[in-house]
């Protein structure tokens, strides 16, 4: 166990904790909780394929407890005609905020983008999440407010 916080790629043993953090994240963002079995679905996306569809980074507090995560995946923008790394989630347990772990997670996401040869990372946060907006601004990110409605349509078999 280390005395310093660490950010590293997730391992299969981390997924139950990542799923719990995702549940806390959805509650924080006033969204429906993940369906049961999230850790198993994440395992498939992260570890059961020769080319993983998703990347997950975890933040460990001193002592080794996983207290945060970031997930990201390569995507394409038709409007811009380019590829980018989409950061789907970045979340830290509220008790571990303000200690530099969020910035370390962002650095790790940027490193993923560089490793993939991508020049940009994109993400979104709710307009009411002023703390996150300030955090991302301090890192040099630019926000582009666009109100949109997100849709989901199941594909019938």
Describe the structure.
With 157 residues, this protein is an alpha+beta fold. The protein contains four helices and five strands. The chain has a five-stranded mixed sheet with strand order 1-2-3-4-5, sandwiched between helices. The radius of gyration is 16 Å and the shape is globular. The termini are far apart. The mean pLDDT is 89.
List the defining traits of the structure above:
5 strands, alpha+beta, 31% helix, five-stranded mixed beta sheet, 157 residues, single chain, 4 helices
- Provide the succession of SSEs: EHHEEEHEH
Low-confidence stretches: none
**SS class:** alpha+beta
> Strand sequence of the main sheet, in spatial order?
1-2-3-4-5
Short description:
With 157 residues, the protein is α+β, with helices and mostly antiparallel strands. It is 31% helix and 22% strand. It has helices spanning 15-28, 38-47, 101-115, 130-138, and strands at 6-9, 55-60, 66-77, 82-92, 121-122.
Q: How is the secondary structure organized here?
A:
Layout: E1 6-9, H1 15-28, H2 38-47, E2 55-60, E3 66-77, E4 82-92, H3 101-115, E5 121-122, H4 130-138
Parallel strand pairs: 4-5
Antiparallel strand pairs: 1-2, 2-3, 3-4
Helix pairs in contact: 1-2
């Amino acid at each position: 166990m280390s005395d310093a916080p660490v950010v590293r790629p997730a391992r299969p043993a981390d997924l139950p904790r990542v799923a719990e953090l995702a549940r806390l994240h959805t509650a924080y963002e006033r969204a429906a909780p993940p369906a049961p079995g999230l850790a198993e679905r994440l395992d498939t996306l992260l570890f059961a394929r020769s080319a993983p569809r998703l990347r997950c980074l975890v933040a460990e507090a001193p002592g080794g407890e996983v207290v945060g995560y970031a997930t990201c995946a390569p995507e394409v923008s038709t409007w811009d005609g380019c590829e980018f790394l989409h950061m789907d989630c970045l979340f830290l347990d509220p008790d571990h905020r303000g200690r530099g772990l969020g910035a370390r997670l962002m650095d790790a996401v940027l490193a993923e983008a560089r490793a993939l040869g991508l020049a940009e990372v994109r993400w979104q946060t709710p307009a009411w999440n002023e703390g996150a907006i300030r955090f991302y601004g301090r890192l040099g990110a630019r926000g582009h407010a666009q109100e949109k409605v997100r849709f989901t349509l199941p594909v019938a078999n």
